[in-house]
């Protein structure tokens, strides 16, 4: 895909991201832009620094990170459950569409988490769900899309199961009614769905 087309796509995708950030059912009322002000004040710049560095090594990690966030948010809300690895392999990452999630994107989030935890003030005090939400926003803006504020304070999920993925994510054979109803369940309109799915 050409860079110009990619930039247009990220502009469209950012609409979804901002909607998901507002609509996520997980503790939505407690989210705020300055959630980490007294906890880990530099978290935004640390995450952005890692994202910027990783994009220089792998430009494709940007698209992969955006897709990772989309897949996380559609399954149990934006709770980073997509990153959980169950010892028995019965986790989201081992199911259907999640099998093709980008290893570079997962690595990017792991690196961002490690960088955040590297500051003793922040260790284990910033959720992976928030790091993923910030990183998805950062890839959008760093490849030429808009920058938008991300509300923070999500809690990480503790549950990840294979079976739920196929009921939560759109499949390649979905018809219009199925797509509409799945996106509506995530607070998105048909117009949102069409704009976001165009490529
Ligand atoms: C509407 C229904 C959708 C379907 C059926 C769908 C399906 C797919 C499939 C099959 C791929 C290729 C995966 C592979 O490389 O094997 C893909 C890639 C991708 N999807 Fe979707 N998708 C949908 C919506 C979305 C939405 C709403 C977003 C973003 C908000 C999104 C973001 C992406 C991105 C960024 C990639 C490229 C990932 C990469 O290159 O690493 N998709 N999608």
TrEMBL record:
Positions contributing to Ca(2+) binding: 72, 75, 77, 79, 81, 92
Disulfide bond residue pairs: 40-122, 73-78
Note describing how the cofactor binds: Binds 2 calcium ions per subunit.
Keyword terms: Calcium, Disulfide bond, Heme, Hydrogen peroxide, Iron, Metal-binding, Oxidoreductase, Peroxidase, Signal
Cofactor(s) it depends on: Ca(2+); heme b
Signal peptide: 1-28
GO molecular function, one term: heme binding
Site positions (Transition state stabilizer): 67
UniProt record, GO biological process: hydrogen peroxide catabolic process; response to oxidative stress
Residues annotated for substrate binding in this entry: 170
SUPFAM superfamilies, alphabetized: Heme-dependent peroxidases
Residues annotated as transmembrane: none
Active-site residues (renumbered): 71 (proton acceptor)
Record-linked Gene3D superfamilies: 1.10.520.10, Peroxidase, domain 2 (1.10.420.10)
Domain Plant heme peroxidase family profile: 30-199
Catalytic activity: 2 a phenolic donor + H2O2 = 2 a phenolic radical donor + 2 H2O
Top-level taxonomic group: Eukaryota
Family according to the record: Belongs to the peroxidase family.
PANTHER family the UniProt entry points to: PEROXIDASE 16-RELATED (PTHR31517:SF48), PTHR31517
Protein name from the UniProt record: Peroxidase 16-like
Source organism per UniProt: Ananas comosus
Gene name of the encoded protein: LOC109712190
